[in-house]
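Re: the pair you flagged

First of the two:
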Amino acid sequence: MLRANQHMSSKLLLTVACCVLTSMMCAQAASADTIFFDNFNDGDAQDGMPVTWVPGSGTWDASSGDYVATGSLPRVSRVLAHVLGDTSARTQARVVGNVAANLAVRRPGVSHGYAGVIRPDGSMTIAKFGDFPPVALGSAVVPFNPVQQDVMLQFDAFGDKLSLWAWPVGEPMPNEPQVAVFDNTYAEGPVGLISSSAAGLPSDSTTYRFIHVADTHITASGLTGDYNQNGAVDAADYVVWRNGLGTTYNQTDYDVWRANFGQSAGSGAALPSAEPLSIAVPEPATLTLLIMAMVVHYARRRSTVS
């Protein structure tokens, strides 16, 4: 009986530790106006950490540490727990094949609400859904696309003004949105992610690295190492770096993040020396090593008790 209780206690403590380490990656990214920040790094988009995604169509899979949409089109997944009016949503996206990346705001239904779209040809649209076909409220074309590289996409809805930005990862956010329109059809609704195409194949995919949702405009931080541009150089940027390692980022980008870890918008210069930084900032494998150490520790305790 004693050994059974100790075994159960060990498993519980280990589970809690793993959850805490994972949640820290998301929690450190949040600012005062953040509604939620999800980097999908826990491999489960429906576990409530930090939010629960509800797929409405298509196949959505977060097991890779990104949120990947494939299958029948269009593909829609929303966070129903947060019904928002004024909304700023930002994501990092990549597509394979003939599909688009979409941020949805004020989306009261799977086929109702607004979407900010970037397509494989670099065309962008703010669309209103509800009637068929959807109504294009405004469009633009940018000289890059989400097929050749990861692209940042931000869609704001404040009052009756809708604004859409897109820019390549690693470059500054444009000062002005590429598309800005006015419409008052939808006043509130959940945020969502969409993968859409008029001629895509079920195997064509849209990959989302993270999504940041706030009730005030998410600004460009201008901070070196702030890869998700949430206004702070923190653990969430490490996750963005790791997910893009070998494609968007390299080891030098990790060194940049590490040298600037702890900065936030308006905080001034980087941390003053490498010594405190080496204590505060984990090396890439640190979290894994911590978990492994805990496993060994509790395994030894079990063998001793036995």
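Second of the two:
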Amino acid sequence: MASFSRRQDLERHIQLFHLPPWLYCSSPGCKWRGGRVDEYQRHKNTHSAPNFPVEEQACQIYDVKLILGLIKDSAGSDAIMTARRIAVDLVKEKALELGKQEWLEDPWGSPGELRNLAFRVNCAHEIHSHSVVCHGSSH
């Protein structure tokens, strides 16, 4: 069980454990996807392409802040599940736009997701006025 007294910590938790990756590498042939801007910054340094996008917004699969806002504004207990379904649909939409068949088959980007799959299934959140408690199998 984890408790989050800061909204920023809760949002990071949701991004990493409950939503599919929202950033991708636009370098031809690269399959990298991730959910943290600092990881994207480190990853882009592995490429020597001169026109590599500097801003993460140019490599967004979907707007994670919009999804986090939906969760924040929702009073329902299934807000994270609903937001997760929307995010997966947005990943699939971007996959069609970019011709990324592997995203259609695996919108979660398996390697990072497999280690957290059991947690994703069992995690439930209690949102209180001053804190959020996540009940899950591990963190």
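Residues 112-122, 126-132 have pLDDT under 50 and may be disordered.

-B.
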